[in-house]
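Hi P.,

Sorry for the delay on this. The queue was packed all week, but I finally got your sequence through. Input first:
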Amino acid sequence: MTNPDLENAKYINLATYRKNGDVVKTPVWVAVHNGTGYIFSEPNVGKVKRIRNNPKVQIAECDMRGGLLGEWANGTARLVNDQPEIDAMYPAFNRKYGVIMHITNFLAKLVGRYQRRQIIAVELD
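Then the structure:
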């Protein structure tokens, strides 16, 4: 199994696991800082709750709708609440997604979602 190219993949499909073992796949943006993949999300959505219960995940490069463009790789996710780590990873998103990220951040700040984001770190096995 080859690991997804997190540096260059525009989207990855993040597979998380329900308590009953069912897999839930979600296409997300990812940026890499110091070898770790980072994702951001709303704090009370399913993927965050599932990671809280089971940190094992799978990821694969995908298109914006989740259609696979690569092979699945196993990994471990953790919820990041350390502000220095959060501050350090955001420039990677800005470099990778450019204007789209700046617009996304502006709108998130405008409606009060920016500070509530849950950051997720993913390490490949």
